Amino acid sequence: MLYRCYAKLNFTLEILRLRDDGYHDLASLVHTVSLADDLRIELANELLTRVEGLDIDPETNLVARAAERLVSATGRGSRVGAELSLVKRIPAAAGLGGGSSDAATTLVGLNALWDTRLGLTDLVRLAAELGSDVPFFIRGGAAVMRGRGDELEVLPPLTGQWLVIAVPPHDVLDKTRRLYGSLQPSDFSSGAMTQQAAERLRNHEQLLFDHLANGFERAARAVFPGLSDAWSQAEQVCDRRFFLSGAGPALFTLATDRADARRQLGKLADSNVVAHAARTVKHARASLRFAPETRIGYP
Fold it and tell me: What SS3 class is residue 27?
């Protein structure tokens, strides 16, 4: 089976408070978008992973870890293996959730291939062991993430909202830790922006620029060298506001339709800015052929 593993954007990301356990409580409206990696999952005599398009040891990436987690939880892979071939198109470590999406698809795809018959609750539990935003990608679509990101409220997805995603280059190691370490009191908020944006989706209304926000914006400008200049350039070229996704440095803006997204993409390309056009999608993945057992928890 060939799966298309969709990226995500954080339309809002608010940092609410520092918890007693050292983590931060968040409120974020997150949505899957059509920018995607491809993951082929096939039966094999042993468990093998291959990666194309990213310089990473395939034995230590999230796909391999997710497969090993499912083996540990079910014991199935000790008797039947699988070959997982990943083609990376989602920029890595950019705030777009590519690795988490791949990991969730690995869990869902192997659950179907090996007939381990884990339900939504078990898959979400295993996903949470891999990363705070991996549970979201078991279902995808639109959701409010709370707590560390592992508490999910499913929302009606946006239909066909076109976007432009700019990806400034960076070589910042351990970016998430550095961003949290750079937070100041002014970066924290109440969660009201996320609630307001979520209410629009509940009412099947489109989001406007005034509904978008990210509490890491100031810290990201300080942590990522050159991000402020790239941000200003994108806004000047496209004559509209751009917003940070996740912990960055990926930036995004709203487009009125596909034609508008392509126009803005052309402008950014002329300015040597790496960018992608995408639209909102209502699931976490698509498969080459219909497989009902992989559609976990979809209404």
Answer: strand
